[in-house]
Amino acid sequence: MKSVRVIARLDIKGPNLVKGIQFDGYRVLGTAEEFADLYYREGADELIYQDVVASLYRRNSLLEIIRRTAKKIFIPLTVAGGIRSIENIREILRAGADKVAINTAATENPNLISEAAKVFGSQCIVSSIEAFRKKDDKYEAWVDYGRQTTNLDAIEWAKQVESLGAGEILLTSINYDGMGKGYDLELIKKVSSSVNIPVIACGGAGKKDDFSQAVKEGNADAVAAASVFHYNYATPKDKPFMSYSEARLRMGEHIDSGNIDFLNHGYGRMRAITVEPASIKEVKLSMLESGIVVRSSDSYCEVKNV
What are φ and ψ of residue 236, in 5° steps? Predict the structure, then answer.
């Protein structure tokens, strides 16, 4: 039985960890490096850094954050956003990343994937596919972090990137992102059954059971999540609301009163935290109890008290 990876995804704008819903309405939750260090110590198998404005500005601005992160964490780090050339990839890998995820530039120039795979090896090249489910239930690949359509069928595009040499696929459902209703199992299953490379399911996890479903029903090789993990560490467990001073202690100086109001009440005073927060350890234990093999780590052994 395959060993399934549990991955924390960090959307980054400037120095900040941000999170939105369906790739929109971002709110600052803290600094990316603080959360990355926390997830590493909690037992994450990998991390994904996504520069959410990089494709818009045609550049990735995470090099310094990558360098500082690589000095403190020792699990694979994938970097996505604004990667447009072999030189971009080389800079990011030299800064300390282990893999890069390419989306927009690959749809414009598919040969970039094959060229990158030849230069750096397929194991370093991830195809990021942001899939939008249309009214006819077909999936279209979108780019520029969900800002632009492509007319590319997401399933067929997944087959093509495999043939071009991508080592794995980071598959994100735009419709499900941040909604907390679970992964788009149909999307995951369609892609995973169409390719032979690993598929990382992303977008929609709302509770511990969702991770197991993505593996058992969608046949995902890895599961990535953001909100479930972020809100587990960003919100207090002993009471429903937090003060500004409490938030600063938890998440640093980048938190302002507007973000605290968001965490406490949500959009339009409707509860925006649509997930049941869980730690990485809790998710791994839940998956193990459902019969899924997860990667062991010292942190994970603490959960099992062994």
Answer: -70, 145
pLDDT in tens, 58-111: 666 789 999 999 999 999 999 999 899 999 999 999 999 999 999 999 999 999
Name the pairing type of β-strands 199-202 and 16-21. unpaired
The set of catalytic residues is 11, 130
Q: Candidates 3.20.20.70, 3.40.920.10, 3.20.20.100, 3.40.50.150; correct CATH number of 3-235+273-304? A: 3.20.20.70
Per the confidence metrics, is the pTM higher than 0.90? no
Residues 6+ apart with CB under 8 A from 94: none
Q: Is 295 exposed, middle or buried (0-12, 13-18, 19+ CB in 10 A)?
A: middle
CA distances from 300 to 44, 165, 176, 278, 297 (A): 9, 33, 28, 14, 5
| Between 241 and 170, residue with greater pLDDT | 170
Instruction: Measure the CA–CA gap between 127 and 129, rounded to whole angstroms.
Output: 6
b/e for 128-162, b at 16 or more Cβ within 10 A?
bbbbbbeeeeebbbbbbbbeeebebebbebbebbb
